[in-house]
Amino acid sequence: MTPVTAMIALCGLLFDPWVAVLTATAGMLASTVVNHWIGAHFGNAISAHVPRPVAARINRVAAASDPWSLAGLRLIPIAPFTIVNLVAGASGVNLRDFLVGSIIGMGPGIVLICLSVDRARAALQGEAVFDPWILVAIAAAGAAIIGLRAWQQKARTRHD
After folding, report:
1. Which of 50, 100, 142, 152 supports an S-S bond with 55, CB 3.0-4.6 Å?
2. Where are the alpha helices (DSSP H) in 42-131?
3. pLDDT (tens digit, 0 to 9) for every residue of the chain, 160 residues total?
């Protein structure tokens, strides 16, 4: 139940930027698999403890269960990621689609956090902050997050 953002930032502090991105992504995927499995195997016990509005929203997305909808689920702050993973497993969301959706939805944020933390660390240590490749990657990840949010809002207005 450790906040995912804090774990990603910690990876950004401990490792080189691209190793941090890979480590944080692997950790996010491993956590997703384990919690999804727990949810799938103990669904009835878990569903009894999740607030109905949260479970209803996840169940609606689970009914569509395509990777893009699941990516949108990752962008909506409805509950901690652990809870979302557990309820997705209990709701019968396909694990492969959930993993792909998780990468689509969380990948740009992981890149953005790891590279931003690396640049902040470099500034604090007196290193050169300007690294064109890292700045391009930060800008691309930020644009991807904005694009995903815009797509999500457009999809939401179409369904309402």
Report:
1. 50
2. 43-47, 52-64, 67-75, 81-90, 95-124
3. 567 888 999 999 999 988 999 999 999 999 999 999 998 888 777 667 777 787 777 677 666 677 777 777 777 777 788 888 888 888 888 899 899 989 988 888 898 899 889 888 888 988 887 778 777 877 887 788 788 778 777 876 776 6
- Residue 12 structure tokens: 């950004």
* Cα(123)–Cα(141) distance, integer angstroms: 20
In this structure, the number of other CB atoms found within 10 A of the CB of residue 100 comes to 16
Task: Please give the model's pTM, rounded to 2 decimal places.
Answer: 0.73
- Rounded distance, CA 99 to CA 95, Å? 6
For the chain, percent helix, then strand, then coil, each to nearest 5?
Answer: 80, 0, 20
Q: Which two tokens stand for residue 130?
A: 């300007």
Token pair listed for 61: 């997305």
- Cα–Cα distance measured from residue 114 to residue 111, given in angstroms and rounded to the nearest whole number: 5
For the chain, how big is the Rg over CA atoms in Å?
Answer: 17
Cα distance between residue 153 and residue 31, in whole Å: 27
